Amino acid sequence: xxxxxxxxxxxxxxxxxxxxxxxxSAMVADAVRLAQEAGEEELLYKARMRQISSASMTGDSDTxxxxxxxxxxxxxxxxxxxxxxxxxxDLLWYYKWMAEAVALNPAFPQQQVDQVLDDMERRYRAAGVxxxxxxxxxxxxxxxxxxxxxxxxxxxxxxELPRDNYSHCEACVRxxxxxxxxxxxxxETALRxxxxxxxxxxxxxxxxxxxxxxxxxxxLRAGRADEAxxxxxxxxxxxxxxxxxxxxxxxxLVFLAVTGNTERGLSLLERHIxxxxxxxxxxxxxxxxxxxYGVLLDAVTRGxxxxxEVRGSDMPDVAAVFGIEPRRxxxxxxxxxxxxxxxxxxxxxxxxxxxxxxxxxxxxxRALADEHYDLPIETQTFAxxxxxxxxxxKTPADYLDLIRVATVVKEDxxxxxxxxxxxxxxxxxxxxxxxxxxxxxxxxxxxxxxxAREAIKSRAEALRALxxxxxxxxxxxxxxALYPPFDDDSEAxxxxxxxxxxxxxxxxxxxxxxxxxxxxxxxQTADAVPLAREAVELAESAGLEQLTSxxxxxxxxxxxxxxxxxAIDALDALLAAETDRSARxxxxxxxxxxxxxxxxxxxxxxxxxxxxxxxxxxxxxxxVSSAAMLAAHLLDDLGDAAEAVNRAQVAVRHAELGDxxxxxxxxxxxxxxxxxxxxxxxxxxxxxxxAAGFAGSEGAGAxxxxxxxxxxxxxxxxxxxxxxxxxxxxVAHVAEESGDEALVSLAIRAHSALGxxxxxxxxxxxxxxxxxxxxxxxxxxxxxxxxxxLHQLGQSKIKFRGEAGLADLDAxxxxxxxxxxxxxxxxxxxxxxxxxxxxxxxxxxxxxxEAIPLALTAxxxxxxxHDTGSAAMSELLAARVLNDKGRAEEAVGLYRASLQxxxxxxxxxxxxxxxxxxxxxxxxRATEAAEVRAAVAE
Length: 938
Description:
- The protein is mostly helical and 938 residues long.
- The chain is 74% helix and 0% strand.
């Protein structure tokens, strides 16, 4: 066997092991090319047979037609050499796909469609196979063309035949039948068939996700909105994972339009609009997509957001579909274009089919504007994507303000230079120092050191003209040493000038700020603090313009010295005074972060929202995204998960529109916040998108794995347990095998999460997962993680192996007692928690006399760690064990102790009170029972 033949066989075998997609298609295409070049006709036939399947499943109709036609010709020329079946590839089976494909393109005249179907029937009869698949194909084509009487006849003919190896799969038969009944107006029967698909869990390549998408609108109309929402999430996720899932997206866009979720709909449209030009031969799929675009974008426009630009509408291939020039279009514009092109396609189909079915479909779709179902999918309103359009600068002062914004806030020297070159009027004398400083900043950013030196000279001349002789002399003497980036001689030069006794406040303040900034850069912040304080005092007493810079520097170095309170004072003073927008933005960002670090989350949110407004006002999309995400984190810390999601969605939206490097990070945190807010289905989408984005970025593999880990947690919360199992297993394996020390902790967490998942479904393999996590933690000397895994391992062993797990709990307790104070929640709380677990396990094993003192020990430990709620539950455990043992009198004191730890009116307090009342009642202490119950009533 030649090397070429071996390589062809390898490519075909490997492709069979891969999911359908670009990599798999490329392998098959390579096999076809090599076989063609080598003149290996039998292998070429085998490769092209395989290519038919690959192209069909990836939505490449052109390749599918070409490969099928070639294979059919080869078979007809020499059936013995080129048989109908080659391994798992079957030309007769593939005929069903060809028949569907020609019907979905109006370029094929009806006569040709009929010829293909008739030829399919002839070949099936000649091969002696059943005709069920033929009648199914004819029924599907008649349904698509709107010839429902014909479709009914073909369906009846199919029903008279038994199923055989060439029948469509059960999922496709039910799904096609549901299509027929829905299209012909019988949605009730269509839903009954859909329910059968779901209840019987039948599936194939694109089912049940296609059926789920088709059923969304009928489910809403039948009053089954919650089911529709559930199917929306699962169908959409499956469609995204399907190499040819684009056609399913259309149903979801319509669903989101009629349920008022236009922001989500627009996001999905933008995510998939690049797929619109794919598979140009499948015109029906394009028609459905364009109709759904029209429905959704009309809803966006009715909601007052018709002027929002649709990201991706400017792609050249997308614009070519509409026959328009590439530029980003608004929602209203793209809606009009979508209806226009959909109408043109409808005319082509109806002309071929000889009816008005497609025109009617457009009319029905437009009528959905009057159909609405209140079904919120996301917690936010329409994410604002517009940026303020700053007024065009008119005066030199306006230009200088915008130049400072461009350099200090946007960090965009190109924009600053463009503004500088646009100025056609010389600033007035009092603004000239600012003007030349702006020039200096731009030159520094562009590494134009000669230009920077010229700017310093010009600034000195401008200062002298204003009577600031000494400041001009100092700046001219120090030159670039006064401005970052500093060189090795800068500190000595600055200190030499600062040592002079004759410095005036303006000059001294300028040098103090530069030297303080340099020392801060060198991590000598202890020495920088007094310099910054003196600069502030000088500027305050003399009313100098350097006051803002001095206060900001003081806040920075104080924070580096772990002195947040005086740093806050400096920032608050800065923000209370009048400052330019650039300085205010920088101060707001720092103030919000300090508030978060001080757990003053309410202040942090207020400041971050002001920052968000200012970034929006200056048109800084990257800044808007960053400020929104900062606010999201603060809101999450504040416990307002819904608002955290809202801000995070704003951050994602602006990162998408601005193509910023923060997009994947923002999607990651959006997913985390959505999970925290109880929206696991949405979290799965965000985290999956983040993981995919990280995976496509060089050097971001660890971030991709972290996002995948959280995807696993979201999947479990969404009850997608199969997905969760696969994700946790993958993350644990890849992180462990990577050899990267930084990923060890992630591998331990993934093994532990997998163990928790398996425990929840009563799978004893959970023990192995926890043991794998424990081995890793011990091998890499991670005592805290080892102790926490021991706790989980002990619990799982107790569940599946009884008392064998008690030793692991004892080991966890000993590890906690031997720990330092740097544990999360503290080792004391951990020891109390494991002790409580052991007490509950012993009680369940019937070892009550051992359980009671352990429960009380756990209560004391919780109380010492300031967790009074858990302490109350441990005491309640001891009380219940005593009561169950017939020692109710001894339990009374523990019930009282438990109640005293719980807030009156809380659910726990009410529950314990009612239980305690019953115990007292049985003891004959009715008066006390009444008093306990009265406390609940109050």
